[in-house]
Structure to design on (475 residues):
């Protein structure tokens, strides 16, 4: 018997499914087509802007190249270290009166088109142009309708407001600032994506096989593809003193409504205290999930430890093993909270998340394929609407905005993440819990259905659904 009530995990299921899609935490370098005019058909590329102040290297800034201008070198060895210079006028909307020969011109955005700034910088002999944006986002610089014969042969890069102003202030105070511009290639597939794929597929397979091969429970339920599985409590079956939450077709519809309302509340009222509330809920669910997994595994290794019980106030008779496991899990979760912004925090977050998802997939079950179709169809509509259609109504993707967290930097931890090991741009590859739990419910159902029907691994549904999910995650 668990010290923490297992049904408490059900309260967190809705929160977990909200993080159905996660966005990478670095600037986007996608390309949505080319301008038709010659000289304006470059692809947008992320740019590393290394800088030195009076010979001391500063923090590397990430910028974005323009649709026009010369391409940047792909390696740091091929990039030239060049002095930066301010222009007069500061926005460079007319010929500069300051010396720019063989320098990187640093200018403010606004006043005239980007292409005009580039032409004035090139006419003054500048080796490149760095434009300071008005905010922290990186704006895509394209050509205007009248730029039909543009001939810009210097690189043009935009940098965020804070980083650009910092360099400008240093130049204003007489510091010597050197700049190096290059745009390294991002690998097509990073090793981290492979590990994330293994974690997602492995979690579903492990959760599907858990009851029979780890918990050593007998598959004695009789699943029917079309009719609802009979149960005494209209949705909850108690088998071997284990509480099971049976999902219904009505519950699938309720999920879409309740989750949508909750998502909108998070979108409009997201703040540091709301983020902290979700972190606390994640930790409670993670503690319960890790506790259940560890107790099950240890009891499987040593059955005697799984039979010893003690009496606790309010809880009654519980496993002695649980009394020792819960403090360990609690300390583990607390340490993750304390070091959640560290470079290694993803390890603790993934361990807590995987344990929680395995526990949720043991508790929440689909009774038949009809309910599975209703739930997954509802989840499909929910995900598509709040990720891709919501920007047309709310001017940004509600799902991605909520998953990104609040302005203080606190993000919702309902996802697995792993750093990009060989990506020169760094960042993380991520997958939301919903992208694992939703398919996992169907895959786990298929395994129980195959076992109840005594189907082999090749002529059953479990293997092929798992393969289908694995292939889908590669897309």
């Amino acid at each position: 018997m668990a010290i923490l009530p297992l049904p408490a995990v059900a309260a967190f299921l809705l929160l977990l499914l909200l993080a159905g899609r996660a966005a990478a935490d670095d600037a986007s370098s996608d390309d949505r087509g080319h301008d038709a005019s010659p000289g304006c058909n470059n692809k947008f590329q992320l740019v590393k802007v290394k800088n030195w102040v009076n010979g001391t290297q500063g923090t590397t800034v990430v910028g974005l190249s323009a649709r026009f201008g010369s391409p940047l070198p792909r390696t740091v060895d091929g990039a030239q270290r060049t002095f930066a210079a301010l222009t007069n006028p500061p926005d460079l909307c007319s010929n500069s009166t300051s010396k720019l020969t063989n320098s990187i011109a640093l200018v403010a955005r606004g006043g005239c088109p980007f292409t005009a700034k580039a032409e004035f910088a090139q006419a003054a002999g500048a080796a490149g142009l760095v434009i300071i944006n008005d905010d922290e986002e990186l704006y895509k610089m394209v050509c205007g309708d009248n730029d039909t014969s543009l001939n810009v042969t210097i690189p043009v890069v935009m940098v965020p407001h804070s980083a650009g102003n910092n360099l400008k202030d240093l130049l204003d105070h007489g510091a010597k600032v050197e700049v190096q511009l290059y745009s390294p290639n991002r690998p097509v597939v990073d090793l981290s994506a492979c590990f994330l794929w293994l974690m997602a597929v492995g979690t579903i397979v492990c959760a599907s096989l858990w009851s029979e091969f780890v918990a050593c429970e007998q598959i004695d339920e009789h699943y029917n593809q079309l009719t609802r599985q009979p149960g005494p409590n209209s949705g909850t079956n108690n088998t071997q003193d284990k509480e099971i939450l049976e999902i219904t077709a009505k519950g699938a519809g309720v999920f879409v409504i309740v989750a949508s309302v909750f998502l909108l509340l998070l979108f409009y009222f997201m703040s540091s205290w709301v983020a902290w509330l979700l972190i606390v809920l994640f930790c409670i669910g993670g503690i319960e999930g890790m506790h259940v997994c560890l107790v099950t595994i240890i009891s499987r290794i040593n059955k005697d430890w799984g039979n010893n019980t003690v009496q606790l106030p309010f809880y009654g008779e519980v496993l002695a093993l649980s009394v020792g496991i819960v403090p360990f899990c609690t300390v583990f979760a607390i340490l993750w909270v304390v070091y959640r912004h560290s470079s290694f925090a993803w390890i603790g977050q993934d361990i807590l998340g995987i344990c929680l998802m395995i526990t949720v997939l043991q508790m929440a079950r689909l009774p038949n394929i009809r309910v599975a179709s209703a739930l997954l169809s509802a989840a499909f509509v929910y995900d598509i609407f709040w990720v891709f259609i919501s920007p047309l109504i709310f001017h940004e993707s509600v799902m991605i905005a909520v998953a990104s967290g609040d302005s203080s930097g606190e993000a919702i931890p309902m996802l697995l993440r792993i750093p990009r090991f060989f990506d020169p741009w760094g960042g993380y590859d991520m997958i939301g819990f919903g992208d694992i739990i939703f398919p996992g419910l169907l895959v786990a159902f298929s395994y129980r259905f195959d076992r109840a029907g005594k189907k082999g691994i090749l002529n059953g549904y479990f293997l092929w659904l798992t393969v289908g999910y694995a292939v889908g995650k590669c897309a």
